[in-house]
Amino acid sequence: MKIIEALKKVQDLQRKAEDLRTLAKDNCAISNLETPKYNDQKKQVTAWMQAHSDIVKEILRLRLAIQKTNLEIMVTIELGEKQVEKSIASWIHRRRDLAKEELQIWNVLSDRNVKEGSATGPSGNAIEIKVVRFYDPLERDKMREVYASEPSVIDGRLEVINAITDLIE
Question: What is the dihedral of CA 109, 113, 116, 119, to 10 degrees?
Fold first, then answer.
């Protein structure tokens, strides 16, 4: 089974579990004036409960297999003209929020509204005001682009990996 198949199966199992919860909720009790919908309604509700339990166990099994696969399979992605190799799990964390965190540090680098030009100093002399940067603006701009595009690059690569990688069980 491929990773994507396992992910889709988990979604389908969650839908089935929800259906079983609805059936159990709607049929777990009736008044003494109602006619049961099933010949042995208690047995039917018990069967739904067991089926739900079995589905939850299968979801857990698949999720653990997905996690194991994500931790063990290494994937190389090109970022900023560099080939970077990480586990699928690492890439998921980068995609989820860490690339954004990296982008935020580069976004805070600015001239802080310092205006270049001439001003009069305390003694009345003209002084020249210049911006003194403690970072390289070209590097900042390059890194901002790298980190801004990283999530979509990861998405594209992981879509392919999820489709071709066998689940480790």
Answer: -140
Classify the phi-psi angles of 121: left when phi > 0, otherwise alpha if psi is within -120 to 50, otherwise beta.
beta
User: How much is the pTM?
Assistant: 0.85
pLDDT digits (tens, 9 = 90+) for 112-150: 999 999 988 888 899 999 999 999 999 999 999 999 999
Q: Supply 104's token pair.
A: 């935020």
**48 to 23, 36, 54, 128: CA distances (angstroms):** 8, 16, 10, 81
Question: Which domain covers residue 38, as residue numbers?
Answer: 3-72
**Is residue 166 in a domain?**
no
